[in-house]
Amino acid sequence: MIISTFMCINLFHAIAALLWIAGLRRFMRPFSPLILFDLFRWALIIPPVLILLRLFNRGSEGPHLIRAELWARQFFLSKPLLTWLVLGLLIGTLLIFIFQELIPFIQIMGRKQIPSHAPSARLKAALVRAKAFYREAGILSPRISHLRTHSFPAQERLAALHGLGAPVLVVSDGLVEALDDEELEGVLSHELAHIYLGGNMRMVWIWIARGLQAFNPVSLVLFRELTEAREAACDALAAKLTGKPEVLARALLKFTEDLEATSVTSDDPRTRAGIELRRRAEIHSTQTRYEALTGELTYVRITIWSAPLQWLTALVLGGMLWIVA
Amino acid sequence: MELKRWMRGVTWAFLVGAVLFGADRLLFGPSASAGWNAAVQLADIPEQSGRPVIPPYLPNSLVWPPEEYLYRLPPEPGWWLGLADKRTQEIWLWYGTGARPLPEQMKSLESCFDETTMASCPPGWRIASTQIAGATVYVLTRLQAQETKRIIVGFSLPSS
């Protein structure tokens, strides 16, 4: 009974967080993508923390908006049909987590190092200029300042942060060739923004929090939204710092062209279908980002209040979820 | 303009809360007091609190019906009935489920349930328990051990 109650509490926390954030995005337009990313981040981290707090603080609880114990009884103990439906949904979500997130993550961790070579002078110069944007804005942290870059021989247009503790920025030769200097600066500024937002390590922590709620379908939605919000936040920050959103949009367009031109080659039809699905999702995501950059002006502010604001969003969301269930 | 945006955000937070609250109360009814409630008679104790059992055996020194009827609603349902002594008119026996925290009227008996040390009731009081339909029913009383045992045994007798 206790487990089903905690599952219900977690479900309602996720529902409340998702509803609230969706509304804020709509009613507080224009909404900063950086704050949006923070909200999604906390929406995944806070619910398991609250469950732990509840576990160690039972008996001294005040009234809540949702009486999770009653919902748990209704879902899991009252009608067998409802119980099976809810269980089916939870198990289905858990399987999605295992097959779409956990197994690919293990595969990525076990992958051999990609062969890389020293970056070209043009790539190095673009990185220096991208770092200069961060210095001018007063947000050049040591992690951004010390970031190294490598090139790797591939015709696909790719740029990504590789590694957790001391990440390296890897950029494909195909990308360097395809972009002009301004576009390259924009893309590198976007990658540096990932570090500004905590880098891969932060994403792993968030993902672990997500893994603790692997059965929760709303957490699945929150995590998918978070990954989109993260890219949008990096785009917005890069556009703000370079002052040229249209250049970054142009670079994104080149990514889409490359993705659309890529043909899926595999003998196994299921593998082919999986790759094709991921490719289409990627194209859709890139198009959405392109539209955001070319549409209304992004609402990004970097002030001395930026860091305290992150903790304030955590406090507000945490307090709200504490009251909910 | 900025203030308007924030106002919209706060209003939305209240709306989300109201929707969740409304759904909960619509489905499960109004919220009852989170703590212990008093009832006037046995029939007033809601079913969700559990069904109080009537002891088949009670010594003649105790008054029936009970002097006190206490209940608590889900999520932590429970009930306690207090029986007075005929002579002193003081509660001489409490019986009910062990849902804690105990009602205010029984606070002095909290130590009877202390699991960290040896259970030690206040002087003159003793505790006993039995299983009835899968639930533990406790008896806290100032009666002699022999009488307490009879009450406990009485609970296990088939009801007529």
Account of the protein in words:
- The complex is a heterodimer of chains A (325) and B (160).
- With 325 residues, chain A is mainly alpha-helical.
- Chain A has one domain (2-324).
- Chain A is 73% helix and 4% strand.
- Chain A is built from 13 helices and three strands; from the N terminus they run H-H-H-H-H-H-E-E-E-H-H-H-H-H-H-H.
- The radius of gyration of chain A is 22 Å and the shape is globular.
- The mean pLDDT of chain A is 85.
- Chain B has a six-stranded antiparallel beta sheet with strand order 1-2-3-4-6-5, with helices on one face.
- Chain B is elongated.
- The mean pLDDT of chain B is 85.
- At the A-B interface, helix 1, helix 3 and helix 13 of A face helix 1 of B.
Cα distance spanning the termini of chain A: 16 Å
Largest sheet of chain B: 6 strands, antiparallel
Q: Using the CA coordinates, give the radius of gyration of chain A.
A: 22 Å
**Helix segment count of chain B?**
2
Helical residue percent of chain A? over 70%
Poorly predicted ranges of chain B = none
Assembly status: heterodimer
If strands are numbered along the chain, what order do they take across the biggest sheet of chain A?
A: 1-3-2
Helicity level of chain B: 10-25%
The main sheet of chain B orders its strands as 1-2-3-4-6-5
Radius of gyration of chain B using CA atoms only: 21 Å
Helix-strand layout with pairing:
The complex is a heterodimer of chains A (325) and B (160).
Chain A (H helix, E strand, L loop, with lengths): L1 H26 L5 H24 L11 H11 L1 H30 L11 H17 L4 H4 L2 E5 L6 E4 L5 E5 H6 L2 H16 L2 H14 L4 H26 L2 H17 L7 H26 L11 H19 L1
Parallel strand pairs in A: 1-3
Antiparallel strand pairs in A: 2-3
Helix pairs in contact in A: 1-2, 1-3, 1-10, 1-13, 2-9, 2-10, 2-13, 3-4, 5-8, 8-10, 8-11, 10-11, 10-12, 11-12
Chain B lengths: L1 H27 L8 E3 L28 E5 L5 E7 L6 E7 L28 E7 L2 E7 L3 H11 L5
